[in-house]
Amino acid sequence: MKPAALFGMLGAVFGFLGVAAGAFGAHALRDTLPPERLQVFETGARYQLIHALALVAVALALDRAATGPATAAGWLFVLGQVIFAGSLYALALSGVRLWGAVTPLGGLCYLGGWAFLAWSFARR
Question: How many CB atoms lie within 10 A of CB 108?
Fold first, then answer.
């Protein structure tokens, strides 16, 4: 599978899962989790949705001109999804605060993805 197709597909899957997570949080978890942990869960869903769209943007950029920086951006966004959103979901659902120590690594992946995406556009 070409990188553009892969990142487009992953963006769509992460978008689907982000909507599902948001609905799950709003309906199934509202009466189960304390408000501060529900807010953590909602933050994970929000960032997941934003970066699902970022992956679609990477796919569209790669469709126009495949570049190393755009491909790096895609992989960093994927890692950010797993580490950032994933650790927030784990923290919210388990209450284990150690997951919060992992979250900034995912944030760095997201930031790196945006930087590489900017670089890929600046090179054109």
Answer: 15
